[in-house]
Protein 1
Amino acid sequence: MSATPSVWGAATIAEIVPRTARVTSFILAPETPFAFRAGQHVDVRLTAPDGYQARRSYSIASAPEAPDTIELAIERLENGEVSQFFHEVAAIGDAIELRGPIGGHFVWSVDDGGPLLLIGAGSGAAPLMAMIRHRTARGSLEPTLLILASRTWDDALFRDELIALHDRRDGFDLVLATSRDRPRRPGDHGRRIDAAMAAEALGRLPRPPAHVFVCGSNAFVETATDALLADGVAASIIRTERYGG
Ligand SMILES: Cc1cc2nc3c(=O)[nH]c(=O)nc-3n(C[C@H](O)[C@H](O)[C@H](O)COP(=O)(O)OP(=O)(O)OC[C@H]3O[C@@H](n4cnc5c(N)ncnc54)[C@H](O)[C@@H]3O)c2cc1C
């Protein structure tokens, strides 16, 4: 069933899964499940007793193949109105308002082919995770490389699931880049993303990428995109999603 994106619907918090010290996943069960594509997001609307409303966008981190629930991986921001609500107030069984799916640009399906280069930082891993889970659910062997930037090893969102997928050696490669931690795996980096790191990642793909997706804060997206352009990646194949900050 497909919901009209402009229509708000109810969803129940079915599960709450802490992922890292700063990011927790909220598994939502929409009253009317809707089909979506990997990379799309939803809008969430909170209404206070006095009628005040706050609305924010959150990427869907789960695969389209399981549409009855959607996973939102929400990072706690200091003094963040909506993210603090989720981390401190929201409980299993609570109802929230949801609108979606939204977005037709930052999306990928196995039918679009590859190779795929994904670059994310912090909670910016969420829509890239939906693409990777979709690839796995569909049994795709499309060459795919994810550079996941985080402060520390423990801040790397979905780290253990991603390492397990990397270890299947089915064409998915994970590179972790930790800005405040030492690299732990061969091929990982203990620094921020730069042109040399992007060039090395490009060299690990069997062919140049057909699609590149970059997601994170404004500053991160700028830096990663500059690195890709410096390495000769065509701007026309780079798609970005900016979370603010
Ligand atoms: C398409 C889209 C998808 C998104 N998906 C996700 C997601 O999957 N997970 C997620 O955690 N967030 C995601 N965001 C960001 C989210 O919409 C909110 O902006 C974020 O949760 C902050 O809202 P808040 O009410 O907690 O903070 P606010 O009260 O709005 O802001 C608090 C302070 O934090 C600053 N700020 C806002 N966003 C950021 C940021 N990303 N990094 C650093 N500082 C920031 C603001 O400038 C402000 O000073 C997405 C944004 C977009 C546009």
Protein 2
Amino acid sequence: MIPSSVPLVVVAADRLNLAAGRELARSLGLAFLGPGVAAQNITPFILSLSGEGLALLSSEGHFGAIVCDFTGGRIRHRYHHGGGVGQAIARAAGIKHTSELLIADLTAGLGEDAFVLAGLGARVVMVERHPVVAALLEDGLRRARQESSNVGIRAAVERMSLVAADARIWLATADQPDVICLDPMFPERHKSALVRKEMQVLQRLVGADHDGDELLELALERAQYRVVVKRARHAAPLAGREPTFAVTGKTTRFDVYSLRKLPSSVE
Ligand SMILES: C[S@@+](CC[C@H](N)C(=O)[O-])C[C@H]1O[C@@H](n2cnc3c(N)ncnc32)[C@H](O)[C@@H]1O
């Protein structure tokens, strides 16, 4: 079942993807439409499967296709020119040198933050509970593993794994992560002009995450060294809990809850 009020159908963009599209629709509990049907007349949100992969299309607000793409565009640019271990998220997670930290990103979304951390050497377990977001993420990982000609990017996605589950349940049985990252969706993000269109569509699909406070408490019980919470720059800290310290970027702040000193080889 899709935990969302947004109407959504799966569409196979061509005959080659009929069987796979039908199977995806079945696994997500969604209606399926074959090629040639004008799905946009039926619903504003379409999950389209083509030879190029899985894309979330929305006719609302003139958004482009939303795909999980680790090999091109903004994510690739950030991989090459984002600032390496000097980036706010890397400093917050404690990666000062390429490290072997095991990081759990409990609110994976489309995996952008996770990819930055994996690109710097961490092993990252991504946990995502929304089945459509998890399907997009899985598709992005698969394509990057199969198609990327860049050795570094391929190695980074090999360090990433995906668990399609609610992190609150996953945490109870998972191996202890060194660092846990959280970035729950907040309703107030709607108001910010700085929010990328991609994130706005994701927001429509996923809705607000009302269990962020609970997730923080669980994360603080389970992480070995630290918990990192991504917030809008001026937002109050999650659960009203003051962090040990914060790393502030242009629009974002990373609140760091330090539990133990990181070993010097990774700090
Ligand atoms: C703001 S997005 C994260 C974006 C992500 N940081 C990135 O870089 O792409 C929040 C995501 O966390 C997921 N999420 C929220 N709470 C969760 C939970 N308890 N377990 C698993 N996923 C969760 C939502 O479904 C949503 O896709």
Protein 3
Amino acid sequence: MKKRYRNKLVFSEKALQERVKELTCLYEMSEFSQKENLTLSELLSYFVRLIPPAWQYPYLTVARIKFNKKSYTSRGFKETSFRLIEKINVNRKERGTIEVYYLKKMPYVDDGPFLKEERKLLQVISRKVAIDIERIEAKEKIKIFQEQIRHADRLATIGELAAGVAHEINNPLNSILGFAQLINKNNNLNEQDKNDVERIIKASLHSREIIKKLMYFTRQMPQDFTMVNLNQVIRDAMYFLEPQCKKEKVTVSYNLDDNLPLIFADNLQLNQVIVNIVVNAIQAMQKKRKLTIATHSNLQSVFLGIEDTGVGMSEEIMRHIFNPFFTTKITGKGTGLGLSVVHGIVTNHKGKINVKSKEGIGTKFEIEFPVKTN
Ligand SMILES: Nc1ncnc2c1ncn2[C@@H]1O[C@H](COP(=O)(O)OP(=O)(O)OP(=O)(O)O)[C@@H](O)[C@H]1O
Ligand SMILES: [Mg+2]
């Protein structure tokens, strides 16, 4: 065989090997991305490991995918000055990057030490990553919507049941209370009877409180809607809550937007929202005790944020917090109705509640009230 011809053969064999490596990498990526219920971080941490073997010098190659403020790296990752980089564009928005590094200086070929085929391969990989991310994010969004619909459905069913119970119990309860108070007025009662009647009165009052909360949750309370300044409601509510904060050594800081538009709301009901969330926050805080209350607005909405540095909640707990009678507190400490009341009132105001919580860090409730435009 002539030398030139042999060299050409060796060269094309090498090129073929490179091509096989590229195809293997893409094939394995496709295979993996077909898996059901794949999360983004599972996908990206697997993909990043498939990149180095597809490059000319696999043992000197490391890779990194940066996405959503997270970094995924291949084994032995280190930054050097020999780098190829591609953007990850999801829905035409730059969301991250993929980088490939050589750990050592290698002979210069097309694009520094990298082949032009390698630059192309990285472009193909970044497009594949973007498509897979798009698909996974769409699936995650659908899942969240479905969960929200299920949650709203469940709350509506519980609401109907609770509305019926509250309504049916309210009248007989008022009779019990009324008659007990009548008996109590009788001066001829002996000590024992007086004590018993007072117990009936106390228990009835307690039950009435619960019924009242259930009525807030099921939106059966009489209401008085006027144009209201949310900042003023906060100040009025906190006037009564600050002594409790002081007693519990909770520092309160306010970040209230002075130019807040008025909202069409029931003053008393908004007061209930603030009281219930703040009381929960105070009860949740142990070591660090900082409560932040903030308001802000845009053209459509007024936002109320109440943030604590308390124990936080697990995702499992968060799923139940608006259900009536759900409580993690010891018997006698909580009835589990506070946030149900909040939910009922916010729904009544056509608002939305968003809760963010991290265990050991704290919780933030953000409530959005629509600004009335007509
Ligand atoms: N800021 C918070 N930090 C941590 N957990 C919270 C917070 N707010 C609410 N929770 C959790 O949500 C549960 C339900 O709260 P909710 O206010 O409805 O009832 P409760 O506080 O237990 O009783 P009640 O308000 O009727 O006295 C609480 O028991 C607690 O587990
Ligand atoms: Mg509570």
